[in-house]
Specification:
The protein is of the alpha/beta class and 228 residues long. It contains 6 helices and 9 strands. It has a single domain, classed as 3-Layer(aba) Sandwich (Rossmann fold).
């Protein structure tokens, strides 16, 4: 670790605030940037509030999620956790942050195709011990995929895989839950069920959701809408 002081967010009990200061993906540098509530501005995401980021394809939604998770650094400007510049963090710090503070559901879902649906979830939960098996089974039942528990993930429809990936994401500890177009293949009924489950768990933890959408947003009540 870079430090064992409370100035390091990897050691804090919570990440309370994520701030973007004059950030811009490097691929956009030199191009005409449309009006944006995020790029080249100063904006903060605070724990306890939910956010929905909407933008057309190519607007940088997935890039933003990767920046927040620390997978990429190809941007100008600053990304701050609790006021601390993440450029000062080393790989072990990011690993600790991902273990304790930030969970991420990418567009590609990152499921293990040969594992069963339930084993995909159990594998994650075995690492975190975040939720009990009864809650996992209840989430899968509410999302209508309990009958696919023993199916290989590759044999599930993309909509079923999205619902499974949501369950798996909730098995991770987090102050901020990052969801990149999490319900793009769900109908309104399943969208609403997924949103209810996420909202319940996020509220139980006193956490936040930052979700993106290109046209089918997750139906979280009281989410703050931001146009990327």
């Amino acid at each position: 670790m870079t430090s064992d002081t409370t100035d390091n967010p990897a050691y804090l009990p919570r990440i309370e605030e994520i701030t973007l200061s004059e950030m811009l993906p490097r691929v956009f540098i030199g191009e005409s940037i449309p009006n944006s509530a995020i790029w080249l501005t100063n904006i903060s995401f605070r724990r306890g509030k939910n956010y929905l980021i909407e933008a057309p394809s190519g607007g940088g939604k997935s890039s933003l999620m990767s920046y927040l998770y620390g997978n990429r650094r190809d941007f100008k400007g600053k990304l701050l956790f609790n006021g601390i510049d993440t450029a000062t963090l080393k790989l072990p710090d990011w690993q600790e942050i991902r273990r304790r503070h930030i969970a991420y559901l990418p567009q590609d879902l990152s499921l293990f195709p040969e594992l069963t649906a339930l084993d995909n979830v159990r594998l994650k939960n075995a690492l975190t011990d975040q939720v009990d098996e009864r809650r996992i089974e209840e989430w899968m039942r509410r999302l209508g995929i309990e009958g696919r528990a023993d199916y290989p993930a590759r044999k599930m429809s993309i909509g079923q895989q999205q619902r499974l990936a949501i369950v798996r994401a909730l098995c991770m500890p987090f102050d901020f839950l990052l969801l990149d177009e999490p319900v793009s293949h769900l109908d309104s009924a399943n969208n609403l069920i997924a949103a209810e489950i996420i909202a319940e768990e996020v509220a139980r933890r006193g956490a936040s959701v930052i979700s993106t959408s290109v046209g089918n947003p997750i139906l979280l009540h009281s989410a703050i809408n931001i146009k990327l």
